[in-house]
Amino acid sequence: MLPTPRTERFPVNTPAASQIFTTVLSQGPLTRLEVARRAGLSPAAVTKAVRPLIEAGYLVEGADEEARPALGRPATLVRVDGGRALFVGVKVTGDEIIGVVTDLCCRIRLVRHVPLTDRDLGAVLTAVADLVHALRAEADEAGAGVHGLGIAVSGDVDRAEGIVRYSPFLEWRDVPLAELAATATGLPVTVDNDVRALTVAEQWFGAGAGLSDFAVVTVGAGIGCGLVVHGRVVSGAHGVAGEIGHVTVDPAGPPCHCGNRGCVEAIAGDAAILRRIRETTGLEVTDSAEAVRLAHNGVSGAREAYARAGEAIGRGIATVANLLGPELVIISGEGLAAHDLFAEQIRDAFTAAAFGSAARCDVRTRPLPFTEWARGAAATAIQSFIRADTT
């Protein structure tokens, strides 16, 4: 991670202490014995790690009256004080910047949307800096400082170097965004791919908490996939991993912008669905909302396009399940506004293509508002803050 300004350091200096805090953060409140069991560490290690975190105000410990056993004292639980630190998360799209302020437990406290009329790097940096300054000014009233900024963008992002290698929607190449944004905002900055950021949020604060192997598949303008394998979000050797959108599911299918044919994204991405409806109905469908209305109104070409998309997504998810054997696949993204139009096809195609026990993978749909993308960015900032001295 690039060196960045920091006003306060997190009081953790060992991987074990970081693991203990992360366990409490994502799965707590917990007793010390339960923390030790889940983290795979000794009770003595937990006691050693917890003490400075309590002294610094990041953890609090107290009796849980509701968990009082039939006889004896109530259980003593350790939990994170979410208000101890605040973080800003920013999601940059092709036409909008979404900003949130979260607490240490990644609970959203403030939300702001800013239209993006110019994708030029300088204009985007100015807009991001202005948004961050406005959010920090409001957050200051809460009495806790902002400790980091996370920025999520689509495309090929090298988080370790803080560089956007290529973002198709923004038309950026090799942009040192973390360094530039740190200079513009005065905050430590973490930059990551938007789907990976969403996956971090699900791993630490959502449906993936406590799971060692799961995947997040996003449906919308593109088809994305974030992977958690053995408890770690997979980035790949070159910052690219989990590109389910470019898995070929129909070799004779439509051409994809990647240069291949029949990719999941070439069939199930928003633009592909609109193109298919235009081809089969002759109607000039201009956006996804109109396409969904046509399908709900029974227009056969529109319904067929969504059914075809569902089958492609299901086959793509089956490929992930066959390769990695995750416990859970979470389907999310803005494209879920049409979920009722292709849910059955996703499930049927997944079941048909999943091999053996891979079909036992739990596939869940989790509609999330667009602010969750910005919350994912904040989650990466929280992760960097906690693990800054241990990675």
What percent strand?
15-25%
Distance between the termini: 9 Å
- CATH topology of the largest domain, by name, is Nucleotidyltransferase, domain 5
Structural class label: alpha/beta
CATH-defined superfamily of the largest domain: ATPase, nucleotide binding domain
Tell me the name of the CATH class of the largest domain. Answer: Alpha Beta
Main sheet specs:
5 strands, mixed
Instruction: List the secondary-structure elements in sequence, H or E.
Output: HHHEEEEEHEEEEHEHEEEHHHHEHEH
Question: Which helices and strands, and how do they pair?
Answer:
Layout: H1 15-27, H2 32-39, H3 43-55, E1 59-64, E2 75-80, E3 86-92, E4 96-103, E5 108-115, H4 121-139, E6 146-153, E7 156-158, E8 163-167, E9 172-175, H5 177-185, E10 189-193, H6 194-205, E11 214-219, E12 223-229, E13 232-233, H7 264-268, H8 270-281, H9 288-296, H10 300-324, E14 328-332, H11 339-353, E15 362-365, H12 371-387
Parallel strand pairs: 3-6, 6-10, 11-14, 14-15
Antiparallel strand pairs: 1-2, 3-4, 4-5, 7-8, 8-9, 11-12, 12-13
Helix pairs in contact: 1-2, 1-3, 2-3, 4-5, 6-12, 8-10, 9-10, 10-11
How is this structure best described in words?
This protein has 391 residues and is of the alpha/beta class. It has 3 domains: 15-83, Arc Repressor Mutant, subunit A (Orthogonal Bundle); 85-201 and 372-387, ATPase, nucleotide binding domain (Nucleotidyltransferase, domain 5); 211-365, Nucleotidyltransferase, domain 5 (2-Layer Sandwich), CATH 3.30.420.40. The protein is built from 12 helices and 15 strands. The protein has helices spanning 15-27, 32-39, 43-55, 121-139, 177-185, 194-205, 264-268, 270-281, 288-296, 300-324, 339-353, 371-387; strands at 59-64, 75-80, 86-92, 96-103, 108-115, 146-153, 156-158, 163-167, 172-175, 189-193, 214-219, 223-229, 232-233, 328-332, 362-365. The strands form 4 sheets. The protein has a 5-stranded mixed beta sheet with strand order 5-4-3-6-10. Strands 13-12-11-14-15 form a 5-stranded mixed beta sheet, sandwiched between helices. A 3-stranded antiparallel beta sheet has the order 7-8-9, covered by helices on one side. Strand 8 (163-167) and strand 9 (172-175) form a beta hairpin. Helix 8 (270-281) packs antiparallel against helix 10 (300-324) and helix 9 (288-296) packs across helix 10 (300-324). The chain is globular.
